[in-house]
Amino acid sequence: xxxxxxxxIAGIVRAARGDAVTLVIDEEGEPLxxxxxxxxxxxxxxxxxxxxxxxxxxVRADAVESEVxxxxxxxxxxxxxxxxILWVGSSA
Length: 92
Hints:
By secondary structure, the protein is an alpha/beta fold.
């Protein structure tokens, strides 16, 4: 599920159904909103455990969509992984 850093991430995760949700967060946005979005993944994973796994993919501006899709697929298939953030794209 692709979201913006300013979206209500807690509300989105709390409303999600199923055994896993992987959020795709774009680098665009205010730095504080991005920091808050990324910091919320771990606590939300704890809150939803053990019924749901919560992970995220942080997409930098130069990321290739196939890499984003691969990261999402990995997190969706990693049955024992929760509360993790994969960064896609370079840090330059």
